[in-house]
Amino acid sequence: MNTTITARVICVQKNLYSILCGEMPADMHAESVPGISGSIIDAKLKGKFYNLQLEPPVVGDYVTAEINEYGDGLISEVLPRKTVFKRPNRSGHAEAFVKNLLEETVVSNFDYVFIVTSLNQNYNENRIARFVTLTLQAGAKPVVILSKADLSDDVDLKVEITKAVCEKADVIACSSKTGFGLDTVRAYLEPGKTIALLGSSGVGKSTLLNTLSGQDLMKVNAIRDEDGKGRHTTTYRQLFQLSCGTWIMDTPGMRELGIIDAEEGLEEAFSDVTSLFSQCKFSDCSHTNEPGCAVLAALADGTLSFERWEMYAKLHTESEWGKEKMKAIARFSRNLDKRVRRGEY
What we know:
Layout: E1 3-13, E2 16-21, E3 40-45, H1 48-51, E4 62-67, E5 73-78, E6 84-88, E7 103-108, E8 112-118, H2 125-138, E9 141-147, H3 155-165, E10 170-173, H4 182-186, E11 194-198, H5 205-213, E12 238-241, E13 247-250, H6 263-269, H7 271-274, H8 294-301, H9 306-341
Parallel strand pairs: 3-5, 8-9, 8-11, 9-10, 11-13
Antiparallel strand pairs: 1-2, 1-4, 2-3, 4-5, 6-7, 12-13
Helix pairs in contact: 2-6
């Protein structure tokens, strides 16, 4: 006889899911199942995910699953998601699944996003602004972690620059090597909260996770001295629970995230810029040479820096490009489907 439980997906490797039984969102009640709740089991998807072309679960998802007498699990439903990170679907991302999704979910149900960038050659304001925008669009709180502070001679300056670029984000400089700033980071480690780690390879995400947890949860690779870059340490998405009760997601390939239809997050991240648009004389102002343009006036009197305007314009252009790219993918998918029906493939 099968037992139906609630669980949380803590690891995904191809078509195999590791789920923690008895887990539910904080605002929902889950009944404890003796002998099962608190245990980690392997599970696969029920056939309806394939037959109905449903989006598969991702790390962080809360699900319902059926457990048989041998301890094997079948995931039957994905519960509503609170926050998500998505990226463009490049087709063929999982065998037998629908190929015309405009986006695919990467991870879900996180409260904070630690945007980790090291204070060496990796530091890049544009990348930080991009991740802050994506985080705000996802509905979570961005926290910029400037790691490897022991390698920098201008930590305070970098902190001020980052705060100026990302006014909606908290900014913390720290060093896993010396312990500098880690107490400030630990203040976010609240029981039941989930933190997603974002950042390029070699910025110290795995080292930070190991330091915060007090154990070697993740393998750490060395970085190249000449450019400060490293190899990818994490090879699949997974969710860890620290002894304090905080969940942490370490996720590979997050630099593949694109700003797809992220105008809402962009507007929040650059509210000082977008608030000027309504003050322009013309509603269709391009902010290039029109008389009465509030943006040009702010650039002229210094209330808006050229660098910040240029950053907004770049991200806005990328967002618009992303929308057109998704439309093109949708058109391609529809045409391909018609050709398959006609027997051309």
